[in-house]
UniProtKB/TrEMBL annotation:
This is Permease. It is found in: Cell membrane. Pfam families: ArsP_1. The keyword Cell membrane applies. Residues 17-26 have a biased composition (Basic and acidic residues).
Length: 342
């Protein structure tokens, strides 16, 4: 009898597990369809309070800023992702190795300038820089390319010109400051960097994929990844404009030092794709042009996602040294260039 009872209990448990695995409602599984239905029911029941909340002036202001930033930035984001995928998949890394001079001191500025003609966001620049190191390019030149490509490429500079139509000097200031930081960090690594601080990448970015599959995989990844950060950045900009008291923002914006540091740190935390960051910076109109320049220079060079990617590609020892040095130099150079050009 005991054996029969245990067998029956085991069979019942197996049946219950099978129902859950098969999505049987009797198995108590909470799937996405049920969640969507419950969410719709809540919205229908609470439509009165929701409608009143959305009609409030603060909510309307928030939605206006959020929509404007996303719609302005999205075409540049998509174009940049497509061009970045084309370069990463169809241009062999050996091309860059052959194009760069052998002397590191000369290869650094050449690699920095090369970033101005090769569209791509920071998400693509890290694997490309890793491929350059694997193919024998001096790390100093690869790092200069890593910093310059997402900051001064044609897509980013065009987006900056569209975002700041009445301040064309912002485009030139961004180009000069970003290129100088990229070359200075390359030379600094050539002078002070040690081989054991940098772990060379051990595998290609698209190993095991056909070119077509790799291209679309890169496009899908970058659109979802960079698009998500764009939405987060637009939400943060809209919140700053609509929710944060104006006196707080004026207090930070009125102090030259605090405003520059605040937007530099904000660029690190928001981790916005470089094709879209100019529109977020333009919406922070209460801050000076120099502070917004710091936002535009720091963001494509060091943020949370870049730190994670640099750690995964070159090792934690490299990222812990390279990221803080890049941040400090980018803030200092942005301040000096802003004082002269803006």
């Amino acid at each position: 009898m005991t054996t029969t009872t245990e067998a029956a209990s085991t069979e019942a448990a197996s049946t219950e597990a099978g129902r859950r695995d098969a999505g049987d409602p009797r198995g108590g599984r909470f799937d996405s369809s049920l969640g969507l239905i419950m969410l719709l029911l809540v919205v229908v029941v609470a439509q009165g309070p929701v409608r009143r909340a959305l009609s409030a002036p603060v909510a309307q202001s928030w939605m206006t800023v959020f929509t404007a930033v996303v719609l302005q930035a999205l075409p540049f984001l998509v174009l940049g992702v497509l061009l970045s995928a084309l370069i990463a998949v169809f241009v062999p890394p050996s091309f860059f190795a052959r194009a760069l001079p052998r002397r590191p001191a000369v290869a650094v500025p050449v690699a920095g300038v090369a970033g101005a003609v090769l569209p791509g966001c920071e998400c693509a620049s890290v694997p490309v820089a890793g491929a350059l190191v694997r193919r024998g390019v001096t790390p100093a030149a690869a790092l200069a390319f890593l910093l310059s490509a997402p900051a001064i490429n044609p897509i980013v500079l065009t987006a900056t010109a569209v975002a700041f139509p009445r301040q064309p000097q912002m485009v030139f200031a961004r180009f000069v400051a970003s290129l100088f930081v990229a070359c200075a960090m390359g030379w600094l690594w050539q002078r002070l960097g040690r081989a054991d601080w940098l772990r060379p990448p051990d595998r290609p970015a698209f190993h095991g994929h056909g070119k077509g599959a790799a291209f679309w995989a890169s496009v899908r990844h970058d659109v979802m990844h960079a698009g998500g950060f764009l939405v987060v950045g637009a939400m943060a900009a809209a919140t700053l404009k609509a929710v944060v008291p104006a006196s707080w923002l004026r207090g930070a914006a009125d102090d030259p030092v605090v405003s520059i540091l605040a937007l530099a740190v904000l660029a690190v935390l928001l981790s916005i794709c470089s094709e879209a960051d100019a529109f977020v910076a333009a919406s922070l109109s209460q801050f000076s042009l120099t502070a917004r320049l710091a936002f535009l220079v720091v963001g494509p060079m060091i943020d949370l996602k870049l730190f994670a990617m640099q750690t995964g590609t070159f090792g934690r020892g490299f990222a812990l040294r390279f990221a803080p040095a890049t941040f400090v130099l980018a803030v200092l150079v942005s301040t000096l260039v802003g004082a002269v050009l803006l």
